[in-house]
């Protein structure tokens, strides 16, 4: 799948500009970003549900804006807040969806795995929010898609259902299905995605593996300790690679690049302060994400 210079406007507002990326077959590609960043616009353009004002998209060689019928044969889409006809039951919806495809999956197994086995006769309107979500995932996958777009896959799911859908995504990848995953969950992104694009203000701010994003963040490591005596925090802030220093519940917390911890220990030695309960841990995707989005989220495209 290839997205080249995607541009999408809603009236005067530019929702997405100059978004380009490529996703390999069998890759799980995550799209992260704050509310209103342009994630849904991007994936709905890929699904052919919105037509861009510029750029080009190809999904397995198909142009989604020109040939949606060809695309729907290979694409499965689970959209944010999908709505079905209120009276359709779970079984009816799956039977109907299956009839659209040449080689659908035997959907009973899928429904059981998603914990909807007992809801076969329940109408869409009578399902809980999480059950509706599970059904929309089942419908996205029933056609044995080669590309799956999952927008907020696990929003509203209980922890068990969440693990179950993660397992299903891993199996899709193992079967060579390309997965585009929009999520607000850093844990989900870290667990599932081979690569992640962080979108903010309609542009891609970073694109890398989860590990690469963490390594590149200003808070790649977090060092915490209790000090034996008063610490000159300004002096620590000046140490090489340090991005922030704060006192938190009696402990000093230092965030910084890879080498920051050593530089801080050196400064402490010079200050004749002994750190106790010293912990140096890797930064998380959360810190990398906040790093990449906090300074730009106020910025509006000109
Ligand atoms: N149909 C529309 N008409 C007008 N503006 C729209 C429309 N759809 C989206 N927008 C605007 O485009 C921008 C991008 O919206 P989009 O839904 O793509 O964001 P998102 O990243 O998916 O956000 P969220 O995390 O809240 O789902 C927002 O400013 C939104 O208000």
From TrEMBL:
Keywords: Antibiotic resistance, ATP-binding, Cell membrane, Membrane, Nucleotide-binding, Translocase, Transport
SUPFAM superfamilies recorded: P-loop containing nucleoside triphosphate hydrolases
GO molecular function, one term: ATP binding
Superkingdom, natural source: Bacteria
Domain ABC transporter: 1-226
Cell compartment(s), UniProt: Cell membrane
Membrane topology of this protein: Peripheral membrane protein
Pfam family, one: ABC_tran
Gene Ontology BP, a term: response to antibiotic
InterPro entries: AAA+_ATPase, ABC_transporter-like_ATP-bd, ABC_transporter-like_CS, ABC_transporter_ATP-binding, P-loop_NTPase
GO cellular component: plasma membrane
Name of the protein in its database record: ABC-2 type transport system ATP-binding protein
């Amino acid at each position: 799948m290839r997205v080249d210079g995607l541009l999408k406007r809603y009236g005067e507002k530019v929702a997405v500009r100059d978004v380009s990326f490529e996703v390999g077959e069998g890759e799980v590609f995550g799209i992260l970003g704050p509310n209103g960043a342009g994630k849904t616009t991007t994936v709905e353009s890929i699904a052919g549900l919105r037509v861009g004002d510029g750029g080009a998209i190809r999904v397995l060689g198909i142009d989604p804006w020109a040939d949606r019928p060809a695309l729907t044969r290979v694409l499965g889409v689970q959209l944010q807040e999908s709505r079905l006809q209120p009276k359709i039951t779970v079984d009816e919806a799956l039977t109907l969806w299956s009839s659209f495809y040449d080689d659908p999956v035997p959907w009973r197994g899928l429904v059981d795995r998603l914990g909807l086995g007992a809801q076969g006769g329940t109408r869409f309107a009578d399902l809980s929010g999480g059950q509706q979500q599970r059904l929309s995932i089942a419908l996205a996958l029933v056609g044995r898609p080669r590309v799956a777009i999952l927008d907020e896959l696990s929003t509203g799911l209980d922890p068990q259902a969440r693990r179950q859908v993660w397992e299903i995504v891993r199996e899709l990848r193992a079967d060579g299905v390309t997965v585009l995953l929009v999520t607000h969950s850093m844990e989900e992104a870290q667990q599932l995605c081979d690569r992640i694009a962080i979108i903010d203000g309609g542009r891609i701010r970073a694109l890398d593996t989860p590990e690469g994003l963490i390594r590149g963040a200003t808070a790649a490591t977090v060092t915490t300790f209790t000090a034996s005596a008063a610490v000159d925090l300004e002096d620590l802030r000046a140490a090489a690679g340090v991005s922030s220093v704060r006192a938190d519940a009696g402990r000093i917390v230092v965030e910084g690049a890879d080498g920051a911890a050593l530089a801080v220990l050196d400064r402490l030695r010079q200050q004749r302060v002994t750190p106790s309960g010293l912990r140096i841990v890797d930064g998380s995707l959360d810190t990398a994400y906040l790093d990449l989005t906090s300074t730009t989220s106020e910025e509006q495209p000109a």
